[in-house]
């Protein structure tokens, strides 16, 4: 009997891509088309378990690392993508009304950014035409925050510090940010590896709880998320004709958060907001009210991060991973209790101090889990083409030219 899911991961090839990855994407894309159409609820419910199975097969069967330990983080990325695909498909299956795309207008503003914030620009038709729904599904499939869609109500978009730009200006400024985040991520991840190459700085993994941990390594997740976002911004604006207004800032200065509510509510990236609300917060809020909603959102976030770590092949550390997100939920619940008891919300310098202490303290255990599975020790760039190495070579070259008087 042929197993639906292989016992071991299989290397990526044209054949395995078509066998494992393509069914997951096709079912996900079909859900994206159906959620825009009326009278498709039963079809979406029927397709949902098929999408789950296809996503599970792809996430647990394909080996994006090609058996190279330094590239195991690519399997983590695959697992995160498949879990996100399953979460979004669940949200789409239970959508109460068809999604509508909103026309973006440069002179309109939405939470301070150039885009339409009104549903008056929706297509005034009984149902989205099938061809239009198929075309829109390409955007919907990668548009995690729902920018330009009516289902993103309540989403707070950080205001761009550079104002409205032309496409050329946007691409150039994004390229500068991309280069900065590439160097910053390489420097912080490289520092972590170099400080303890035999333990947490190796692909075999190890604990971070020793005196040698460089504090800057904790900023690596922020830099890598920004780096990937800037790459996609340039890609979709240049290759797919999207407008700069569809790629507003991802973070809103999270280091200035004066409460956990502001940190997780809008200052940290909101890429999974739809998923966490639809799949986690809303169901539990029906049973346990606001407390259940907060806990549900963070439990789903914990599941996302757990399955990502599990894909590294060295255990997902569920107690640590779920523990981090549960404690964040407890922190938000405590802030709610403080406001009810005192009539004052958490804010100001004391709020800033509280937020930093609570997040960073529990984050230490989360970073330790990453280190134990070898994520910290992974090499994200070839040794000879690391951004920091290339930058040093470039500076040496120009310093040599300057010293010889040829510049």
Unreliable parts: 105-124
Mean pLDDT: 84
Give the strand content. under 5%
Kindly name the structural category.
mainly alpha
Q: What this model shows, in words?
A:
The chain is mainly alpha-helical. Helices cover 59% and strands 2% of the residues. The protein has helices at 14-34, 41-61, 73-93, 130-142, 167-195, 220-239, 260-267, 273-310, 318-342, 348-372, 387-404, and strands at residues 10-11, 62-63, 109-110, 113-114. Strands 1-2 form a two-stranded parallel ribbon. A hairpin with a 2-residue loop joins strand 3 (109-110) and strand 4. Residues 105-124 have low confidence and may be disordered.
Give descriptors for this structure:
407 residues, mainly alpha, two-stranded parallel ribbon, two-stranded antiparallel ribbon, 2% strand, globular
